[in-house]
C-alpha cells in the first residue's frame, strides 16, 4: 500500500505545484496580518475532501483554520500545523520577479512564502487528498491547522488555539521548512531593552555632562564579556550553547550635545533547561555589578519579548514514524537536528503537552529572503512522507 500511496502522490506533482503557486498569490503579509482570504480558500478546499472545518478568530479578519477528518474509532489524533502568514516582501525592485506573482523555473517555485511556508501548506493538503482519494479508511482523527500570526510570535495563531483548549491530539507535525530534516529541539529567546541615562551638556564642555553612549559602551562590553563565560557549561547536543546579540542601538540628539540617553535591544537565545526568568536575571546581575563600580551609571531594563525553548525525545513515536517513512522514500536515514530559531512547535510541547516534530519542505536559508524559492521535488517528497505517516498512525 505504501508504494501505491507514493505513486499516487508522484502523479499529483502538478496539483501540488499549482496549489503552491495559488497560495503564494495571496498577499498574507504579517505585519499587518491579512490571512482572511487565504483561510477562506483553504477552508473551502478542505471541505471538498470531507473535513469538518472551523474558522476561529483571535481578532477580526485573522482566522485560523481547524479541519478534522474523523476516523471510525475516533482515536488517536494526529495534527499537522502550518502557518498562512508571510513576512513582508520588502522593496519590490530587489526581486527578480514580483513576489506575489509566482514563477516556476528549473523545477523551483519562486515567490514570497514559497519556502516559508506556502509550499508546505500545499504538501499537507495534497497528502490528505491522496489518503481520501485512495479510499483509505482512517481509524483515528486527522487534524489540519492552518494558522495565523506565526511570523509575529503566534499570539493570534497557535498560541491562541492552545490557550483556548482548541488543540487536542496525540502527536503533531509542525511543517516549517526543515529541508526534510526532523527537528526535535529548538532554542527559545528573551529580548531585553536597556536604557542608560546620562546628563546633557555642550560638547565643548563634555566634563559638565555624563555621556550616555560612552556608558552604554561599557554595558555592551560587559554583556559580551561576562555572559559568554556563564554559557561555558551550558551545552545542548543538537543546539550548542546559548548566545547573545545586541541588535539595535539608539542615542544622542546632535553631534555637539553630550547625549543624555542611549538605548539598546538585545536578543539572548535559550537552550532547553533554561528559562526566561533566569536569563533575564543574568543580565540584571551584570548591570548591578557595573553600577557598584560606577555610581554615575543609571539604567533601566525591561523584557520586551520571550519564547520558551522546547524539545522532545528522538525516541517519540512521531519521530520514528517520520524517520521510517523518510527512509521508505529516500532509502537512507534522515538527519535529526535542532533548530536555532523558534517555531509553533513550542506551544504544542510546552503548553499543550503534545509531542511535536518539525518537518517540512524548503530550506530555512531561503526564508525571509528576496527571490525565495522551494524545490518542487521537495514538496512532492514531503507530501509522500506526510501521507505515509497519516497511513501508519491513523489507518
Short characterization:
By secondary structure, the protein is an alpha+beta fold.
What do these coordinates show?
The chain is an alpha+beta fold. It has 10 helices and 18 strands. The protein has helices spanning 2-10, 13-24, 36-48, 114-133, 158-163, 212-231, 276-293, 317-330, 345-351, 376-394, and strands at 52-57, 63-69, 77-83, 103-105, 108-110, 141-147, 171-174, 182-186, 188-197, 201-202, 243-251, 257-258, 261-270, 298-307, 310-311, 336-339, 356-358, 373-375. The radius of gyration is 24 Å and the shape is elongated. The chain starts with a helix and ends with a helix.
- The portion of residues assigned to helices is 25-40%
Quaternary structure of the protein: single chain
Major beta sheet, strand line-up: 1-2-6-3-7-17
The number of distinct β-strands equals 18
Our measurement of the CA-to-CA distance between the termini, rounded to an integer number of angstroms, reads: 11 Å
Main beta-sheet strand count, sense and barrel state: 6 strands, mixed
Low-confidence stretches: none
What number is the mean pLDDT? 97
